[in-house]
Amino acid sequence: MQFEDLGKRALDTASARGAQYADIRFESVRSERIEVRNAIVASLSDARSLGYGIRALVDGAWGFAASADLTETGIDAAAARAVAIARASASLARRRVGEPPRHAYVDRFETPMQRDPQQVGLNDRVSLLVDAERAVRSTPEVKVGRAWMDLWSTEKFFFSTIGSAIEQRIVQTGSGLQAMAVGNGDVQTRTFPGDIGLYKSGGWEIVEEARLTENAARIGEEATALLTAPQCPSGTFDLVLGGSQMSLQIHESCGHPAELDRVMGWEANFSGTSFLEIDQLGKLQYGSDAVTIVIDNTLPFGMATCGYDDEGTKSVVSDIIRDGVLVGYEMSNDTARAIGRTSNACVRAQNWEFVPMIRMCNLNLLPGNVPFENLFDDIRDGIYMESNRSWSIDDRRLNFQFGCEMGWEIKSGKRGRLLKNPTYGGMTPRFWNACDAVADARSWNAWGTPNCGKGEPMQTGRTTQASAPARFRGIAVGVGYNG
Amino acid sequence: MDKAQREAIAKRILALSTADQTEVIVSAQNSALTRFTRGVSNQNVASIDNGVSVRAIVGGRTGVAATNDTSDESLKALVARAIEMASFAPSDPEQPQLPAGGPCPAPEGAFVDATAKADPFERARICDAILTEVEGAGYWSSGYVSTGESGITIANSSGALASFDGTDAQANVKVTASDSTGFAERLSTDVGAIDGTDVGRRAVEKARGTASPRSVEPGTWTVILEPPAFGELLAYLVSHFSAQTYDEGSSFCSGALDSAFFDASFSLYDDFAHPLAPGMPFDFEAHPKSRVTLVKNGVVRDIVTDSYYARKLKRPNTGHALPAPNAYGPQALNIVVAPGSKTREELIAETTRGLLISRFWYIRVVDQKKTIVTGMTRDGTYLIEHGRITGGVRNLRFNQSIVEALGAASFSNDQHRTGQYSYSLVVPTAKLERFTFSSTTEF
Fold this sequence. Notes:
- The complex is a heterodimer.
- By secondary structure, chain A is α+β, with helices and mostly antiparallel strands.
- Chain A is 21% helix and 40% strand.
- Chain A folds into two domains: 3-227, 2-Layer Sandwich (PmbA/TldD fold), CATH 3.30.2290.10; 235-477, no CATH class.
- Chain A contains nine helices and 23 strands.
- In chain A, strands 1, 2, 3, 4, 5, 6, 7 and 8 form an eight-stranded mixed β-sheet that branches. Chain A has a five-stranded mixed β-barrel with strand order 9-16-17-19-23. A four-stranded antiparallel β-sheet of chain A has the order 12-11-10-15.
- In chain A, a hairpin with a 2-residue loop joins strand 11 and strand 12.
- In chain A, 64% of the residues are buried.
- Chain B is an alpha+beta fold.
- In chain B, 22% of the residues lie in helices and 37% in strands.
- Chain B has helices at residues 3-16, 72-86, 113-116, 120-136, 196-209, 227-238, 243-248, 307-313, 344-349, 402-405, and strands at 21-37, 40-58, 61-67, 140-156, 161-176, 181-188, 219-225, 268-270, 292-296, 299-300, 334-337, 353-367, 372-385, 388-392, 396-401, 409-411, 416-418, 424-427, 430-440.
- The relative contact order of chain B is 0.14.
- Chains A and B meet through strand 1, strand 2, strand 3, helix 2 and helix 3 of A and strand 1, strand 2, strand 3, helix 2 and helix 4 of B.
- Strand 3 of chain A pairs parallel with strand 2 (40-58) of chain B.
């Protein structure tokens, strides 16, 4: 029996048992990972998973059941379980919150790519990483070299009782390098590209874009140089952040607090709440007028790029911060309705086993008009930092402290000495209001994060925060090493 | 999928494989979680899945393939795929023989039938008890109640065959008042031990007790960490006891076994059989787990190994392998800190000025070798003055070396299970004499 027939059976069963609305999402997932560590292939794996999750709405309350049993009996049991769970939700509820989606779509989406990774032989993939990892160990101090590659392919089939029938094929690819140097009583790490590797939607061209082999020896040398580099000073400095660190900054201090489920308290006991409260919409000066942040789930190469989210809502582009002012949220159907808006398709599930929920999708800081090399021009005494090493922020997303792998002095507009253990911190709106320049589109890149955690049971999300480097004035630097 | 079905699949895989060595992991899970916020269940979910993972080793080359399709056709393809993948890997001269296993009986209390059979209405009943407590106080809450069962069978071509079935039940709630919050949790293998009224009442008491919080200056404080806070902090020390971290030189104790790093009152174990958190008695290579004394009276005594690092470092295999493929090395997953001699109340009464901390949030490593971490307090931080709790304080950010903090410490005489991750923590309340905060926040 094909997915369409099984889906119809599930929806009929749920309706017959009393669901006012139901949808089913089949997913066939393939996850391939290769990791080379100190010349040993530590991971060479190929995992496949096929199953489905059913959502049912009864008396304004939701239930969700997932199963890998693709028999008619299994489908019937899962649909019945979803309805029973929805009834249990209704028995607990003090009020109704759930309503069916309003729009149905029949469509197909496929990630654009130049070369399907499956066309690249396993031997070539392993050889690339073995060569790159060997080159990472470019000095005796590099005790651990790592090189890795992830190839993910997901086929989704979504059907709902209001008539949606959506088929999608999402392909995401990533690779990276790391060197860990030990010596001088210290341990220092360098990662490339960025702080996780380069992760984007697309095919083998994403691995080629990373240029692992060409950069491997430099990464090992940089880790080694950090062992004897001077400690980053503590004090107040002008700060320039590289593109991948900006991605992390956007992710933690804008992406998460702008999730409307957090704002409404749905994540309070785990991921936390948000300082971006609903009565601040259209009023809060979140950042300077150099700061415009948008959701764009149509962005080429975005990790969250798709045709439709996991509630069956069509991908759109929408504003979160416009010229520094809070103007929107990342939303689902139910949360958007609660504030009189419509969903902007920010709902994702990790895979078929998990209930769809609001996730940070492609949330991007639009580029400015200053060439990257000119960001340093009028800085008399500053610090430039690249590649995240440590990140922590309070559960309303205000007080943050981030650390990077590398820093450099900026003296009279010029990049100076290498610094180790650079950190900085602040309060989110104060920090973003101190942003006076974002570099232009030539240094803007779609930095993907493949491992964003949220929810209970916790789900891993894949997201992109595209950004260029940016400049901030008067920031607390060196926190954490001075008490 | 029950034990007999899992073992049948494992034996079928071994019969199908032509690899030099073969390992198979068959897993089954049936889990459910009811989450609530502001009097509504915002996520109420259940999931059933099985998994089969095959590690094939051919001439020192290793490939791993996995699927959740347990049909015979799929299993044949799975074995072929693992062997094919192995052919592309370089040979590893350090690859040991897979362990031969051994007796490993499940600890008492690991599986409770009532937990396995709990339905969504039982979870709703516990949630309702929490909500009733919270609403009675005029506050709102967010939390969950979860129940689940899982089974695992691991077999290999060296003759190991081990199976384990366990259950887990949890309740977790954060209560929010006008200017304060409170947290409580309960974790057990037995859903019957999850008392929603008790969990709700404890969280309400924290929110009430920290109302109208005052600001205190950052700096070095004496802190008393309740089990959720201490467990969260300790979790960032655990990987330092991995043979891989130790061998690579990034552990604080690399090359320094039998050295004193901590207060003499601090003893740390890995113990899968602790009555508060009975767990899997073998590792993911089917090797029986040892009870490992990591720290005894402040002195680092041991690290955890798997078959690979036991051979490489010429140490005993302690049975702490993670599932293949594993780039993280062996890990301690059943952490226990020995209790002290005083009650929690005595620890507070002996504190002239300090902070009582319920929970930490978003701890991250700042400096690996020095074990410096940063994070925030959360959901119930109290000021202690002259041996008494005198009210709530606004949350603070800390930057602190864990090893240094445990250099002057004492512990309560009771233990609690905490932790929401893929490992268990059984810890007392900890009093740390010097703990450094670097900034505050606005709530």
